[in-house]
Design a protein that fits this description.
The structure holds 2 protein chains of 2 kinds. Chain A is an alpha/beta fold. Chain A contains 8 helices and 7 strands; from the N terminus they run βαβαβαβαβαβααβα. The N terminus of chain A is likely disordered. In chain B, α1 packs antiparallel against α2. Classes of the chains: A alpha/beta, B mainly alpha.
Chain lengths: ~250, ~120
């Protein structure tokens, strides 16, 4: 089979797994990432959320004949993930796997992540860089502090330690789609984890390795290093309250 | 500033914070705006609650009286208007984002189903 023309509808009867890649100005890496995903996960359907890219990302996606959800303007990472969740919900997928478009995730490891999620029954399984080593030293100081802080905050509030709260590699099970699209999250990181844990959903971590970024730059700018933790912490705390309200509504 | 005045201002500050937090919770106000507003109120409440700080601020800005009721009311009005405008901006941009997402999902779904339609027998 020619992988370059693989479209999601062709084997939809047997495959209910969607791999989704949110992309914003990732022309340098997106083609390579898509080819690797297709090679490593030929039975998975693929969706790229083009989040209003202004570089050649759109043209590359057209050429690769991949299913694309196009945002008319840049809505941000969180909204791109939410679009993927809405698509998965609408098309009745059983699993949604999210990967970053910068090539840092190894698609070869996704199969193991998915198998673990299915076998162990996690509602959300995170591809984690730190679950095995508990060592954040490969990250810049600012991020290291943030990741430790949010990891401890999640444990304090939800009673479970999640070592990699900012990983973009996740396997999300169908019952969680509606829950995640019902409320608003910043980037589906610590705030979504706490929200789901407080609602009683199971969240696990699976050890993965991550490549160093070779192109582009992190989505977190200098300003967002200050604004992001504050926004996330605020939504995280409000999420606890919202989850409690949701639980009461459900039980009533 | 009197104890009575301090208590009233702290209650107003607390009520404003709860209002803003509830707006964020209901997705009527961006968390980014919310952080700014909640922090601003917290700073004002701190200044009001600690007389030494208020006296310091009064000295720094060159005011004669620590509190001018008229100025306070004017500021309160501006603040409420600001929150209202930001709320409307948030609502409109949330609707716009939802429309963009819906359009993207719908087009992607149609795009993805196209090969199946092509393979379907002629009717």
């Amino acid at each position: 089979m020619d992988n370059s023309v693989h479209r999601f509808g062709e084997d939809r009867q047997r495959s209910r797994i969607l791999a989704a890649i949110p992309a914003y100005n990732e022309a340098a890496t997106i083609e390579h990432v898509i080819r690797r995903v297709r090679e490593s996960l030929p039975d998975f359907d693929l969706l790229v959320v083009n989040d209003g890219s202004t570089d050649a990302t759109g043209e590359i996606l057209d050429r690769l004949n991949v299913t694309v959800a196009r945002h008319l303007c840049n809505l941000g990472y969180g909204r791109a993930i939410q679009t993927a969740i809405k698509f998965a919900e609408k098309c009745e997928y059983d699993f949604l796997i999210t990967l970053d478009a910068d090539g840092q995730h190894y698609p070869e490891q996704v199969l193991g992540l998915y198998e673990a999620s299915r076998a162990e029954g996690w509602d959300l399984l995170i591809g984690s860089r730190y679950v095995k080593s508990h060592d954040y030293s490969d990250s810049p100081l600012g991020r290291r502090i943030g990741m430790r802080l949010f990891s401890m905050l999640v444990r304090a509030i939800a009673g479970r330690r999640i070592y990699d709260t900012t990983s973009g590699l996740k396997v999300i099970r169908r019952p969680v789609f509606k829950v995640l699209s019902r409320w608003h999250f910043i980037d589906f990181h610590a705030e979504a984890i706490v929200y789901l844990l407080r609602l009683g959903y199971s969240i696990g971590e699976y050890n993965v390795t991550v490549a160093a970024r070779t192109h582009g730059q992190s989505m977190y700018s200098m300003l967002s290093h200050i604004a992001y933790p504050l926004k996330t912490a605020l939504i995280l705390l409000l999420g606890v309250f919202e989850a409690e309200l949701t639980r009461r509504k459900q039980s009533a | 500033m009197t104890v009575h005045g301090t208590i009233v201002l702290l209650i107003i500050g607390l009520a404003l914070q709860l209002w803003i937090l509830n707006l964020i919770r209901r997705d009527r106000l961006y968390a980014g705006y919310g952080v700014f507003l909640v922090t601003a109120i917290a700073v004002v409440m701190l200044v009001v609650a600690v007389p030494l700080l208020l006296a310091g601020v009064t000295r720094v800005v060159g005011a004669i009286f620590p509190v001018s009721a008229l100025t306070l009311l004017a500021l309160g009005f501006i603040f409420v208007t600001l929150v209202y405008v930001l709320t409307q901006v948030t609502i409109v941009s949330n609707r716009l984002a939802a429309a963009i997402q819906e359009l993207a999902v719908q087009r992607a779904k149609e795009d993805a189903e196209r090969p199946l339609a092509r393979q379907a027998p002629d009717r």
